[in-house]
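Q: What would this chain look like folded?
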Amino acid sequence: MEHNPDVIAPPAGGLTSAWRATIVVVWVGVAIGMASVWSASRQVGLSTWWLGPPTDGRPAVVAIAVFVPAVVVLVAAAVVQRHLWLTAVIAGVVVIVIGCGDIGRVDGLATVQIALGAAGAATGIAALSGTARRASTRPR
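A: My prediction, written as C-alpha cells:
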C-alpha cells in the first residue's frame, strides 16, 4: 500500500473520516428515531415515561433531555477526535436505559428506543476498528 501525502491520518485514538461520518449518520438517525417515538407516542396516545400523559406532561427539560446523547455524540464528532467511539457507546447505553424505562408501559415504543440505542452503541464499537493506533517505533 502506497503512502498518499494528501491524506491526513487521524491522531492516535482518533477515528478515520469514514468512521466519523458513519457515526454522524447513525446518530442523526437515532435523533430522528427518538423524535419519531415522540410523535408516535402523541399520535397513538401512549405516553412514554419521559413525555408523560398529554394532559399532564413532563417538564420540557425532561422531554428534550432524551436528545442529549445524540447531541453529545454529534458535537464530539465535530470537535473531538479522541475516543469518539467510546462517546457513541456510552450515549447508546444511555438511550437504552431511557428505553428500558418504558418496558411494561409501552413495550413497542420501548423496543424502538432500545433498538436505537443499541444501533448507536454498536456503531461506536464497530468504529473502534477505525481507531488510529500510535505510530510504531520499531524499525522496519
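The chain has a mean pLDDT of 88.
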